[in-house]
Specification:
Blueprint (H helix, E strand, L loop, with lengths): L8 H13 L6 H8 L3 E11 L2 E13 L5 E2 L2 E4 L4 H17 L5 E8 L7 H16 L9 E2 L8 H14 L26 H13 L3 H5 L11 E5 L3 H14 L2 E7 L2 E4 L6 H11 L9 E3 L12 E4 L18 E3 L8 H10 L2 E3 L1 H4 L2 H15 L8 H21 L8 H8 L4 H26 L6 H20 L2
Parallel strand pairs: 3-5, 3-6, 4-5, 7-8, 7-11, 11-12, 12-13
Antiparallel strand pairs: 1-2, 2-5, 8-9, 9-10
Helix pairs in contact: 1-3, 1-16, 3-16, 4-5, 6-8, 6-12, 6-15, 12-15, 15-16
The protein binds nicotinamide-adenine-dinucleotide.
Length: 476
């Protein structure tokens, strides 16, 4: 344990914010307005379970309303507290600004261990929590739109959407009150994978810039890079799976609650995931070494470290021993402000959370737009696009017959070219575009300003500037 006191999660976010605004020329009043959390609502409610009333504590924090609705996930975990939701709400403000999702920042949480309750009990608890928030407009299509986070997923979002609809029976836009819903309840293709997919797109974009890669001491592409992932949940599983299946990266380590798995030859991500789902942990998985103290694997030599579980895991206690030259923060706040200082001095390149895990809110934005427009993306254009492509193929084939040297279009080309884009392709394309543009906006600041040493500060500069511009335009 270090003798220096570690700041809380919210203090960490504020310290990082302060480091960035020190390089900006904002009027002091505006700086303070952007930093502070506007409001946090705490609710305690009772649910009758197993013959007695159990009381639960939940929060919904609204950090900034420079754009509305405000947006941010709902987390179910025992560690949930006011400091944490406020930190996460602030990160949502900066994240939405960075990726140009037109929302303010919010976050919610319920102090509960969801594994202690069966499905019916969880439904009762979730619906009651949703009721408490919805009746105060803390769930509302135009005011405050939650999404999944740690411990919640499609199932909980469907209950929340239904609860809101029951309370607002004539609201035609009721489905837009929450995102991350299942497809059959107003969700969008590609939302479940979105945050992990965004981590993949972020790394792909990073590796498109050899000068940036050079700062890590690495070379080449993602192919063959050794990766350690912490947390094989929604975000960690999808990121690890896509990086190994599609980019040729080797997932050499996976850290979970009950220890870590290590295999220098690479782990089969799907096989580990199936094991985890079946056994509730990674212990006993056959094709790897199991380390009971999982967190030590954060310190193992690898090319890319992906903390994708929870905040504060890289801290003053272990930062000096972290060997990975590149860390991508798939979780929110996995590196404390103190650890960030140590890693920066060591030259570790950190792709910051507000950018790295923005895939979730980006696709949530698409889902919200889909709900408000009441039509699936691609429904109007797809067949028309296919018909126009068919015209080109027919013409080329006709010309080939008259050509001096006849040619043929390969069946693979025709299959790919003729297929019009459906919702999933459009969502992935929109996400890829968002992740590329946001990275380029950060790197421009990183490369052009001598006083900006790292991507996190660059990300804060870009997003704070956008939030400030919104406030100025509003006349504040
Ligand atoms: P999740 O509940 O699906 O998965 C979390 C995983 O981490 C689980 O497998 C859990 O067993 C594991 N875990 C928990 N404590 C651990 C520990 N001490 N050591 C190792 N593993 C541990 O959650 P998620 O939705 O994947 O969220 C993970 C992180 O990503 C959070 O920080 C969340 O705020 C962030 N995030 C999630 C989304 C999203 O769309 N779900 C979007 C943006 C950011």
């Amino acid at each position: 344990m270090s003798a220096i006191k570690e700041p809380s999660f919210r203090e960490s976010v504020d310290l990082m914010f302060n480091r960035a605004v020190a390089l900006m020329d904002l009027p002091p009043g505006l700086e303070e307005k952007i930093r502070v959390c506007n409001a946090t609502y705490t609710v305690r409610f009772g649910v009758r379970l197993r013959g007695q009333i159990q009381t639960f504590t939940g929060y919904r924090s609204v950090h900034s309303e420079h754009m509305e609705p405000v947006k941010g996930g709902i987390r179910f975990a025992m560690g949930v507290n006011q400091d944490e939701v406020e930190a996460l709400a602030a990160l949502m403000t900066y994240k939405c600004a960075l990726v140009e999702a037109p929302f303010g920042g919010s976050k919610g949480g319920l102090r509960i261990d969801p594994r202690e309750y069966d499905e019916h009990e969880l439904e009762l608890i979730t619906r009651r929590f949703a009721y408490e928030l919805a009746k105060r407009d803390l769930i509302h299509p135009s005011q405050n739109v939650p999404a999944p986070d740690m411990g919640t997923g499609e199932r909980e979002m469907a209950w929340i959407a239904d609860q809101y609809a029951r309370m607002n029976t004539t609201d035609i836009n009721a489905r837009a009150c929450v995102t991350g819903k299942p497809l059959n309840a107003g969700g969008i293709s590609g939302r479940v994978e979105a945050t992990g997919r965004g981590v993949q797109y972020a790394l792909q974009e990073f590796f498109r810039h050899p000068e940036d890669v050079a700062k890590t001491g690495l070379t080449g592409t993602l192919d063959g890079k050794r990766v350690i992932v912490q947390g094989l949940g929604n975000v960690g599983y999808h990121a690890a799976k896509f990086l190994s299946d599609e980019d040729g990266a080797s997932i050499v380590g996976i850290i979970e609650r009950d220890g870590a798995l290590f295999n220098p030859a690479g782990l089969d991500v799907d096989a580990v995931y199936q094991w985890l789902v079946k056994h509730g942990g990674v212990t006993g998985y056959p094709d790897a070494t199991h380390l009971p103290e999982g967190a030590v694997l954060l310190e193992e030599e690898c090319d890319i470290l992906i903390p994708a579980a929870l905040e504060g895991v890289i801290n003053l206690g272990n930062a000096k021993r972290i060997q990975a030259p590149l860390i991508i923060e798939a979780a929110n706040g996995p590196i404390t402000a103190g650890a960030d200082d140590i890693l920066r001095q060591k030259g570790t390149v950190i792709i910051p959370d507000m950018y790295a895990n923005a895939g979730g809110v980006t696709v949530s934005y698409f889902e919200w737009v889909k709900n408000l427009s009441h039509i699936r993306f691609g429904r109007m254009q797809r067949r028309q696009e296919e018909a126009r492509h068919q015209l080109v193929v027919d013409e080329l084939e006709k010309l080939s017959k008259a050509a001096a040297i006849p040619y043929t279009l390969s069946p693979e080309f025709k299959l790919k070219y003729l297929r019009g884009a459906g919702e999933l392709e459009l969502v992935r394309s929109g996400l890829d575009d968002t992740m590329r543009i946001a990275y380029q906006s950060m790197r421009e600041v990183w490369h052009t300003r001598a006083d900006v040493e790292d991507l996190r500060t660059a990300a804060y500069l870009v997003s704070i500037n956008k939030v400030a511009a919104s406030y100025r335009a509003k006349g504040l």
